[in-house]
Amino acid sequence: MKIGIFDSGIGGVTVLHQALKQLPNEDYIYYADTQNVPYGEKPKEEVKRYIFEAVDFIARQGVKAVVIACNTATSVAVEDLRAKYAFPVLGIEPAVKPAVQASEAMGKRVLVLATSLTLKEKKFHDLVDRIDSHAIVDKLPLPNLVQFAERYQFQEDDVIRYLEDQLTPFDLKQYGTVVLGCTHFPFFKAAIRKLFPDDVVLMDGSVGTVKHLKRVLEASGQTGDGTGQVTFYTSGVKVEDGVLLSQYHRLLEML
Ligand code: DGL
């Protein structure tokens, strides 16, 4: 059986990329809810409805696990999804813990970049409360990056201007680590890196999430004998269009 990877849009491709690297002998369904992206600026209940529609669809295709490759969807729905489905549901969340450890060792601060909904949710506040004992974590919502990514704009002047604008109130020298707490953001690594001091470390949760998936599959004896084949869906429709398929493959190559 396949593994489902789900995001509101193209962001989850950053997790798919890791999955293909760490678990090449699996086959995947990649589901982007392009009709409803962005999730991060919408009311929680509306987003939850979209997530359940998407995961219901993925479940009907027959999967052995689903990865919620969207920090926003994880923060609003992962517990409810786990209660509903019999297969394991894994969620990505901002890599705050390794970032705090690394920044503490450098005597520096952490900046978490994510969607507004992720940063507002209890799950995120609980995570920070548990880990940030020295109050070194700052946060910044960057909703427009999701929109830029969905238009495949990663390095354009508008992107750089937006980032510079949003980062103006922050003293960038004080940060040792920057958490990319939205799966759309690793596509902007080059642009973000340029704005911070050279030694800044950018962290995202994709490696850890896929490691966890690997452990779950191994523990239940469910590792696959696939070939890394990916079937793409956008909001319940199988992607057959060659142009869109090659765009997804180009995104995978960008990472
Ligand atoms: N990629 C998603 C995340 O990791 C959210 C993007 C959106 O706002 O839909 O949070």
Automatic annotation (TrEMBL):
Alphabetically sorted, this entry's keywords are:
Cell shape, Cell wall biogenesis/degradation, Isomerase, Peptidoglycan synthesis
Active-site residues, Swiss-Prot/TrEMBL: 70 (proton donor/acceptor), 182 (proton donor/acceptor)
Q: Which InterPro entries match?
A: Asp/Glu/hydantoin_racemase, Asp/Glu_race, Asp/Glu_racemase_AS_1, Glu_race
What is catalyzed by this enzyme? L-glutamate = D-glutamate
In this chain, substrate is annotated as bound at: 7-8, 39-40, 71-72, 183-184
Q: What is its EC number?
A: 5.1.1.3
Report the domain of life of the source organism. Answer: Bacteria
Q: In which pathway does it act?
A: Cell wall biogenesis; peptidoglycan biosynthesis
Give the Gene Ontology MF terms in alphabetical order.
Answer: glutamate racemase activity
What protein family is recorded? Belongs to the aspartate/glutamate racemases family.
Query: What is this protein's function?
Result: Provides the (R)-glutamate required for cell wall biosynthesis.
What HAMAP family does this protein map onto?
Glu_racemase (MF_00258)
Q: What is this protein called?
A: Glutamate racemase
Question: What organism is the protein native to?
Answer: Paenibacillus vulneris
